[in-house]
Each structure stands twice: as structure tokens, then as C-alpha cells.
Amino acid sequence: MRRCLELAALGAGYTAPNPMVGAVLVYKNRIIGEGYHRQFGQPHAEVNALAAVKEQNKALIPHATLYVSLEPCSHYGKTPPCANLIIQNRIKRVVVAMSDPHPLVSGRGINLLRQNHIEVVTGILQQEAQWLNRRFVWFHTRSRPWLLLKWAQTQDSYFALQSNLQIWISNTFVKMLIHRRRSMEQSIMTGTNTALTDNPQLNVRDWFGPSPVRLVLDRNLRLPKHLHLFNNSAPCIIFTQQPAPQTNLGNLKYVQLEFGKNLLPEILGYLHEQQIQSVMVEGGKQLLQSFIDENLWNEALVITGNQYWGKGIKAPCLPPEAKLLRSALLYNNQVQEWVNEVHNFGEPFLTTTVV
């Protein structure tokens, strides 16, 4: 099953809104086929695992055990049901890490297999599987996106200069890591002041992979159109309190909301309606701290550089219930990954890279 999870992680950034899934076909302790869901709309893990079986081993398929990190689907979507494929191949035993939280599946795939006299074992490395697909599971069980905070700070915990002068804290290796993580999230959020001061692109440049949907809070439509955010290179949603323009041009869309105390939950509710399962927040101190204070965050990536400023804007502050998941030194930057212990979600499946 650990091999299933390793394979599933290879699809990070490409499968959403589908989950990441890995499958391994084993005959007498020997892997005869393995595969994973590579990209949304393409064949699922079970299909790829069966297709990988060599011709001389195909006769072994009915006698093999199929390990899969998520319950096989039983409905028609972009691809045919995997449960039917398992039945057609006369596989007699299936080991599943976790059931699918999606309402169209949710136990139906497992029940269909058992109704066809297939032995199904469940719950193997269940928490690890839930963590790997935390965005997918959280989205379907809590009806809002998984939320990742990211910021960089100095050794003395300063976040930015009062003068708004842009000084890089993160080194080149950390930038690559952050861009890799951007490629795994479906959206990325910033606020008005950060957009004006930094003119960020909020895309994936220092890694390969898809760029996330850009989300911008612009209460009074102050942002000028020459900013990178308006270059149409990636979808961009502007949340504003002002009457939104009647026409949405290209990849640009305006959403009018009341900027009151319920703003952040309303934004997350809207993103849920749009089937956006995860948000990476790379904004200013106020935006980041607001998500923390309202307990709407799930993860935080905190980069600590080797600089001392002695003055400036203090970095956001995580609450006592934040749990340090792992920490690593990348040259002269310390990278820490924190989780919100209040939500108590799954057992982290730790690979050599951030997933």
C-alpha cells in the first residue's frame, strides 16, 4: 500500500478535481503491474495498473491481489467505472486504503465489488491515504477548500519593511520549492496592498506544472490594469465590493461581495461552488493573520531567512495549537511546515518532497 501512495503522489498538481490514486497488482508477493492517475480526464490508476501487466503475466491477473489507495469508482464520469473493470478481469481480492468521500461513490464501489463475490479489505494506511488526498477529502466533507498559508520572515520574525521596499528573504532553492507547491494547488490568493507593492505574477515559473487560478481581494477596484495579475496568462478572479464590470474579459472574472466580517467564509463558499479544492495564500500580514484568527487555515509553510532587520512589520503568528509537521534547511533558509491541530486531519504521508 505504501507503493500505492508513492505512485499516487506522482500525480500531484495534475489530477484535480479528481484525487491522486495509485494502484499495484501483486501475485505471490511480486508486483506484476502498477500505475497511477496521471491527469484529470485520463485513465484511472486501476486501468493503468492492469495495462502495465506484461503479456506473459496476464493469466495471473485473476489470481492476483489489487492494492489501491482509494475506493474504486462505480460511476461513469470522464472514464468508465473502475469497479466494473475489476469485475471484468475476475480479480478475487482487492485491498483499499480508504473509502471515497465523494457522494457519487462513497462506499458504492466497495459494495459493488463485494456483491460480485470479491473479497475487499479496507482501512490499510487509511490516515496516510487521507492526508495525501487531504484537499479532496476536506473539500467533500467540509464543503470548503483546503487552505495553505505561506510567508517568509527574518531571523527576528519580521515579514516586510514599513517602507514597502521589496527585499527577498527566500533563496533560489526555496523559490523552486514554493513554485512546486503552487503547481499542486488549484488557486493562489493575495490582497490589494501586496498586488500594488510587489506586482506578483502568482504563477509557476521556477518549476514545471500548471499555474493556479489567481484570486485577488480588491475592495475598491484600486488595482491598475498594467499589473501582471491582469495579463490573462492564467485565470484571475477579482473579489470586490464595488459593482463588478458587466463583461468578464478572457481569463478575468469579477465577483462582488460585501467586505464585512464574513468575507473570508463567503469567499471560501464561492470557491467551493466553483469546484476549487485548495487555496494557497501569499498575501500581506493582515490577510494571512485573518485566516489564522478565524481558524480557517489548514497548513502553513513558513520560511525563515538568515537576515536580521531589527524593525519592520512583524510576521503573522500561528496559534499554540499549530503543530510542526517537519522542518528542513535549504542552504541558508529554514523551511517549516505546520498543520492546524484543531482539525486533527489524518496522519501525514511524508515523502522526500512536499506534497
Can you walk through the features of this model?
The chain has 355 residues and is an alpha/beta fold. The chain folds into 2 domains: 1-136, Cytidine Deaminase, domain 2 (3-Layer(aba) Sandwich), CATH 3.40.140.10; 143-340, Dihydrofolate Reductase, subunit A, CATH 3.40.430. 24% of the residues lie in helices and 24% in strands. It is built from 10 helices and 16 strands. The strands form 3 sheets. A 9-stranded mixed sheet has the order 11-10-9-8-12-6-13-16-15, with helices on both faces. A 5-stranded mixed sheet has the order 2-1-3-4-5. A two-stranded antiparallel ribbon has the order 7-14. α3 packs parallel to α4. Mean pLDDT is 92; it is low at 350-354.
Task: Provide keyphrases for this structure.
5-stranded mixed β-sheet, disordered C terminus, elongated, 2 domains, 10 helices, alpha/beta, Cytidine Deaminase, domain 2, 16 strands, 9-stranded mixed β-sheet, Dihydrofolate Reductase, subunit A, single chain, 355 residues
Outline the fold blueprint.
Elements: H1 2-9, E1 22-27, E2 30-36, H2 45-51, E3 65-68, H3 82-88, E4 93-96, H4 108-115, E5 119-122, H5 126-132, H6 134-142, E6 146-153, E7 158-160, H7 172-184, E8 187-191, H8 192-198, E9 213-217, E10 236-240, E11 252-256, H9 263-273, E12 278-281, H10 285-293, E13 299-304, E14 313-314, E15 322-330, E16 333-340
Parallel strand pairs: 3-4, 4-5, 6-12, 6-13, 8-9, 8-12, 9-10, 10-11
Antiparallel strand pairs: 1-2, 1-3, 7-14, 13-16, 15-16
